[in-house]
Design a protein that fits this description.
about 150 residues; alpha/beta; 7-stranded mixed beta sheet; disordered N terminus
Length: about 150
């Protein structure tokens, strides 16, 4: 489930294109970037730039499947949505309870909360590219991948 709270509305170019692009990105965000939505809404040559790495669509589907498995009650909240031209920016948070194994880490049964900003590029009604910034150290610490000594 996703809650959308947006006070921002930057627009340049066609308002209807900006609104269509926002709707496309929010349709994916509203399902927490669930793999099922990714296959429907992203292009076959999709790429995500994340933490110095690039994931293709298959890699993102695998990663998000693992997230949804580890956090079965995953909830995304979108705070801002800004569209301009072929890009849509979302500022969001995600939270859930670590109830499933994630990247070798056994469930902690603790709450997990992280935030991020994603810039999505739209082409021909599909998401073709994302740039995502997430506090990866905070994310890893909450899953127990790193100790709190940092």
């Amino acid at each position: 489930m996703t809650t959308v709270r947006s006070d921002s509305n930057l627009s340049s170019g066609s308002c209807s294109d900006n609104e269509s692009n926002k709707e496309l990105v929010l349709s994916v965000a509203s399902r927490g970037w669930h793999p099922e939505m990714l296959t429907k809404k992203c292009s076959h040559d999709y790429q995500m730039h994340f933490g110095g790495s690039t994931l293709d669509l298959e890699g993102l589907i695998e990663f998000m499947g693992a997230i949804h498995y580890a956090l079965p009650n995953l909830l995304f909240e979108v705070y801002d949505v800004i569209a301009e031209g072929d890009k849509v920016v979302t500022r969001w948070s995600a939270s859930g309870t670590h109830l499933g194994k994630f990247q070798g880490v056994v469930p902690t049964k603790k709450p997990v909360h992280y935030t991020g900003i994603t810039i999505s590029r739209i082409e021909n009604g599909k998401i073709v590219e994302d740039w995502e910034e997430v506090d990866q150290l905070n994310f890893a610490q909450q899953f127990g991948s790193f100790s709190d000594m940092f």
